[in-house]
Write a structure and sequence with these properties.
Length: about 140
C-alpha cells in the first residue's frame, strides 16, 4: 500500500455515488475489516484505516470536491498525506444502536447522548383573587 489507491475504488463505489451509497459501502467495509473482528491481522487493520480515510474525504463535500478535481496530487501539497490521522466516526453509523446497550452493561451508562439545549424558563406573575381562582374565573 505504498501508493494510495483511488478512494472510490477503496470503498467500491462509483464516482457519482450518493452520500447514502458512500455511507452504506463504508459501514459494510468497516464492519468487515474492523480490528475487533480481525485481531492480530495487520492487513485487515491497514485496510480498515484506508477505508476510514477514504470515507473521511468523500463524506465531506468540500474535500470530496477537491479530491474529485485533483485526486491525491493536489497542487501546493497533498492535504491527504501525513498518514492516518484518525477520523471522528459515530459507531452508530457502523453498527446501528446495538453497541449502546453493550456499553451500558459493561461501563454503566455508555456514551452520553447530546441533548438539544432547552429554552429559557418563563416566569409570569399574575394577581388573582382566591375566589376567582377557585371558581375558574377568566380574568
Amino acid at each position: 500500500m505504498s501508493e494510495k489507491r483511488d478512494y472510490y475504488e477503496v470503498l467500491g463505489v462509483d464516482k457519482k455515488a450518493t452520500d447514502q451509497e458512500l455511507k452504506k459501502a463504508f459501514r459494510s467495509l468497516a464492519r468487515k475489516y474492523h480490528p475487533d473482528k480481525n485481531p492480530d491481522d495487520e492487513e485487515a487493520e491497514a485496510r480498515f484505516k484506508e477505508v476510514q480515510e477514504a470515507y473521511a474525504i468523500l463524506s465531506n463535500s468540500d474535500q470530496r470536491r477537491q479530491y474529485d478535481t485533483f485526486g491525491h496530487n493536489r497542487p501546493g501539497g497533498d492535504p491527504f498525506s501525513g498518514g492516518f490521522q484518525g477520523v471522528n466516526i459515530n459507531f452508530e453509523d457502523i453498527f446501528g444502536d446495538g453497541l449502546d446497550s453493550i456499553f451500558t452493561q459493561f461501563f454503566g451508562g455508555g456514551r452520553q447522548r447530546r441533548r438539544e439545549p432547552k429554552g429559557s424558563d418563563l416566569l409570569v406573575r399574575h394577581r388573582l383573587s382566591f375566589e376567582a381562582m377557585f371558581n375558574g374565573s377568566e380574568e
